Amino acid sequence: MKRLLITSLFILVAVPSFAATAINLDVDANSAVDVVYGGTNATTAAGALTNLGAASGLASRIVANFDGGGTTAIVQDSKCIITVPFACTITGGQILASKKLGTSGTVSIVVNIWREAIATNFDGGSSHPAVGDKITASAPPTITAANRAAIDPATWGAGATLAKGDILVFNVDSVTDAVICNVVLYVNKL
Question: Which domains does the chain carry?
């Protein structure tokens, strides 16, 4: 039997001769809910997602974190590597960063994003992905003397579309005073 791990579920149940009833089910992170023939009419997790309307257009996020433990500065060329879980289009995002916890003030940081298809040139970083594989054109996520900034992938061209299994490397190109940085890409599943 296939099992689908979910942390929160909203179910709309139609009962004959009664009005539709909404049930909100909170499930802890260690629980699993069986994918059954009933509510989704599917026998697999993928089928359940399709029947629930989540097969395409699903809004989600890809998140990269750089954390110096709240006290240690992030250094240039720090990297975060993420595998893209499904084909998607980047629709926007934000970059957030701060100084040492409890210290006020602004920071500056530039985080570039490189992409490589795992099936083609990905070699664990010895030569790919690298600077030449960037998807951000000339507009990488950047904070200049602030603590946050919006990400606009409209200037990235074809770089805004990702394939399932692509490897993304978030690389700190430059940094001043940041000890924590969070890069969030808003994506829509294709």
Answer: 3-51 (no CATH), 59-189 (2.60.120)
